[in-house]
Amino acid sequence: MKKSSIRLLDDLWVRTRDEALSSSDESVAFLTAKCFESSDKIVFIAEDLVPAKEKDYLYRSGVHLEISPLYTSRVLNIAENKQSTVIMVHSHPFEKGVPQYSPSDNHGEALTSETISNNLAGNPPVGSLLIGQAKINARTWIGSTKKRFSSSATILNGNKYWSSHAASKNSVNNILIDRQVRAFGSGMQDAIESLDIGIVGLGGTGSIIAEQLARMGVKHLTIVDHDKFEPSNWSRLYGSTMADTKSIKSKVSLLSSYLGKISPELKITTIKASVMTNSVLKSLAACDIIFSCLDRHAPRAVLNELSYQCFIPVIDVGVGLNKNDNGILGGSIRATIIGPGLPCLFCQEIIRSEMITSELLAPQEYEMRRAEGYASNTQDRAPSVITYTSLAGSFGMMFFLDLVAGKNFGKYSTLLYDLTTKESLRLRTSIKDECVCKKRLGQGLSMPFSVAD
């Protein structure tokens, strides 16, 4: 069955919730939204609220409402001008638990969603949010077919991440994760199992993150890497064996096979391609959270854009080692979380435009410009040690667990460990004016990515 995700920034969610619960009677509102589809998921990126006025209600009580066709028409005009679709919103103001759609809701939304889809270009899907006093429910209507299925709803900004994912129907055997559930609780375990997670880059950091996620009970991973396994990867790539050094395998196939033995119920989507292609980015846009485990600036930059355009938290991890002929002198281990409301990788100068330029040069031109001093050293074979890549991956997993737990990120967005001083630091910079993260916010897939094919 196809899945669906409705994503809202926190300030829009607060306005929507306040509007929906402004009366003891049921209330209605509409959201305009960008919408796109992957192979198995429909994603809504909420844009703006179109509240109902008192005159827009034909009938209203604590258990039922009817709205004027003129209100629907007004919403359609706004959505059409934006080239967007619509998310229907209404409340069950007396519901303290998870609100449930009534037969009356089913009938009314079937008609309204059909009207909306038939009057917008391409007959787009239509979303729905049902708001109670403390919890919400969500679903999606498919075009003009009157078919519907449940959806997750995610509210996020720089200080928190909250999702209404339903509990997994095929939970991990409780005996296997008993100690974890004792630590996190069953609610957080349900959330972990329901998330779609993407990992880009399957080296020392990406492979340990993948293994940790598999052992924690994640049910769906999308793993991306265009490289083949090389003998030098053996020293830090989890899941590889000495036998793999004598065969030619892609990293995605090697890791997929290994993870399948750890967790046979894990659904793994493997993509042996560069992340700097539109088809790969479209697949990743359906993920709830993405790990960026890359050692180059250009692919990090495109994931940076994806994060803000499609409202996806991205956890970027990295290791930088300093050395001379006598060995390692120092360096740092880092994990950084980015997304709406947080400074992006450009704001923090973790990625730089001159490095992207150097990486994208043809080999001959790169060598010429580097000799002239115009191109930066991209360090094709930078030093790497499994101890440090493992720690970087675990730093990233700390951010992941905080995200799922709904922890506040108001004071920091980077965890940094200095290998020289052995100090751990929590850092956060300001969001820069006119930065890419502001210009691309909420644009979905309608805005082209700057360095993709």
Describe the structure.
Helices cover 32% and strands 27% of the residues. The protein is an alpha/beta fold. The protein contains 13 helices and 19 strands. The strands form three sheets. A nine-stranded mixed sheet has the order 9-8-7-6-2-3-1-10-11. Strands 14-13-12-15-16-17-18-19 form an eight-stranded mixed sheet, with helices on both faces. A two-stranded antiparallel sheet has the order 4-5. It has two domains: 3-157, Cytidine Deaminase, domain 2 (3-Layer(aba) Sandwich); 178-439, 3-Layer(aba) Sandwich (Rossmann fold), CATH 3.40.50.720. The protein is elongated, with a radius of gyration of 24 Å. The model has no long low-confidence stretch (mean pLDDT 90).
User: Count of helices?
Assistant: 13
Strand fraction:
25-35%
| Reported CATH architecture of the largest domain | 3-Layer(aba) Sandwich
Coarse morphology: elongated
What is the tally of beta strands? 19
How many domains? The number is 2
State the low-pLDDT regions, or none: none
Find the CATH superfamily of the largest domain: NAD(P)-binding Rossmann-like Domain
CATH class of the largest domain reads: Alpha Beta
Largest sheet: 9 strands, mixed
The helix fraction, in percent, is 25-40%
Give the C-alpha Rg.
24 Å
Named CATH topology of the largest domain: Rossmann fold
Strand line-up in the sheet with most strands? 9-8-7-6-2-3-1-10-11
Report the end-to-end length measured between terminal Cα atoms: 31 Å
**Class computed from helices, strands and strand pairing:** alpha/beta
Q: Please, what is the average pLDDT? A: 90
